[in-house]
Amino acid sequence: MPQPPIPVSADESIPARQTDIPWRLKQMLDILVYEEKQRPAGEAGPCLEYLLQHKVLETLGTLGKAEYPPGMRQQVLLFFSRVLGQVQHPLLHYLSVHRPVQGGRAAGSPASLSLPCQKLLQLSGDCLGSGTEKEEVQFAAVLCTKIKQDPTLLAYILEVSGPRASLCWWDTYGVICGGKSILNGRRAQELPASPVEEGAEHPPGTAAGSPPAEPSPPRRDSNLVTSLVGLCKSKKSRVALKARENLLLLVGLAQEAAAACLVRSSALCQLLTEHLCDLYSTVPACTDPADILALERASWRSQGDAAGDGVFPGKESLAAFFGWLDYLDELVMGAQPVVADAITEAVEEKFFQGILRPQLLQMTPLAASHPVPSRSELAVLSATATLTGTVRQIRAPPLLHRLVLFLLGPDRHPETPGDAPHPLRTQLIDRCNHLSDEISLASLRLFEELLRKPHEHVARSLALRNLEARGYLQRGPPVPDDHGPPEPDPDEDGLDLEEDPYFTDGFPDAGFGTAKKPQPESAPLGKGQVSEVVSSFLCLVPEEAKTSSCMEEGGYDTYVHDALGMVQACRASAAPWGWPTAPRPLDACHPEVTFYEGHFLKVLFDRMTRILDQPYSLNLQVTSVLSLLAAFPHPHLHEYLLDPYLNLAPGCRSLFSVLVRVIGDLMQRLQRVPHFRAKLLLVRRQLMGLVPGE
Predict the structure, then answer these.
(1) Which helix or strand (DSSP H or E) is residue 24 part of?
(2) What is the DSSP letter of 480?
(3) Helix 423-430 crosses helix 599-609 at what angle (to 10 degrees)?
(4) What is the DSSP letter of 169?
(5) Which ranges are annotated Acidic residues under compositional bias (predicted)?
(6) What's the rounded Cα separation, in Å, for the pair 351 and 339?
(7) Is the whole model's pTM more than 0.70, yes or no?
(8) pLDDT-based confidence at 598, cuts 50/70/90?
(9) How many Cβ atoms from other residues are within 10 Å of residue 359's Cβ?
(10) pLDDT digits 0-9 by tens, 247-293
């Protein structure tokens, strides 16, 4: 036979759940629910009126905060959650319900909902790992549901703290403990005042003048927001997930006044951003950049799952950082615009400008003679890799817009050589041509990730701004070369590069076999012309350097499949941008200065000219970025990057002309290397892992 519950007054050290307190609280709840069912909708019964008028809920909040008896906080949180969830009457609109949830009021102050000093919410999220996290998040979830139903409540629940209330402590103590104060009909005025007041009578078992211990005040005024953000950090995945879901509900309130209140009356943005910065600081500085880039895209719903196998040091910290970043991204996407703008502004100020910018602007040594990267190079590599992961993680348009402008600046006018209005953009592009191949590779990956984002300013800033006037085209008749064609080198074994039909740089009148050059004002290329353009690029490679036909599995089908997917993705991203379908008419183009391809394309073209001397991985990355640029459906990009028939203006170069120079260099090397094709085929098989390397 189970033992009867112990009265709380017998021994104040006995946990509340082992006393009759839970039973009496359940009785109170059952009475309130039953009474409500017996009365017309919206009408408060005498029991509910008594509960409100005699500050019963207020006193429960004080007892829970004081943990008197031990475990009382858990019981009070459960009771409040059940009362607010099961009683349909709008309790939060009443003063004495709002006061224990939100705080007390000073004696003599007007009975309004603008009440200070939260009690129960001050307890939530203050101490991670507490035994009441489950009850705390349940209580916060009920409040969020009520606020969702009536957004006007948010302004009152987020009130800042103020003077404490005068509580009728003995009223509720008698109800809970079975005492005779209320049950005998004594009026509240005849009972002792709250024990938290100075000089008030104290609860049984405590010394006179020693009020129940209260936790130290939090760093910020505690409210529903601080409670939810604190619970979002819980090590208990279910608690953290439920807290994050309810915070999403809170920031998604459609009412603009409620959204403005959430930004103005809480530390939401600061708390979210500070936690992001704290998580970023926990990522070990020695984390391999390759491991950072290899980490799969994190999800805020799968807390801790990405770090379960612990493949490399720092993976858990990285997963936590990217998971929280993904959550901020989700918040911004689902938030009311006022809240979304406030969160993105805080992220830019604290994280982008405050942390990432100093790291990314860190100078690196120009020498690259050491095979092992220096400490400063490793720091730059790690910061660049983390930034690449950050770009990959962000999807919310407001946050993506801030990130793009942070990295590239807002300028949209054509560039001029040596112009650097945005130092960070200049630094990042310069690193694509760094003497350290590792830094160049990491920087190129960053720009490839940027180009994959659905934001028009990326392509505009990096390339299109310099192509608008089509200054790369020859406007008048070709300027004749006064010096005539250069004399062939007798040491070239009869190879005359100038007679190569594809070596057109500097020879605008040169033809391409039987292909006829389209005029600059022509419409977009048709199928036949596209085939001719493709053939022109393919014919650049001499037969001695072609090895695909000798490979058992060259990966051609996979390449075509991936390329098609890339083109389709670029077209889908650019669909809302309103790009033209035909080049801008030349008579409407008025280039003011000599054509300059821009910093980014200049670096890419310079890299392409050295393709024969660079590591294979770096060449792949350069061509990958150029391919991505060429996949965008803008006529100027297609014309400049893909049209081999352009009449280039003096001093200008295009992708095709750069490749012609590279092939010319390759042809000269072919003559000097015996059995070149066999050696090239062996190297290719080694790179593909078909044969072991030396």
Answers:
(1) helix 21-38
(2) P
(3) 10
(4) H
(5) 488-502
(6) 18
(7) yes
(8) very high
(9) 15
(10) 999 999 999 999 999 999 899 999 999 999 999 999 988 888 889 98
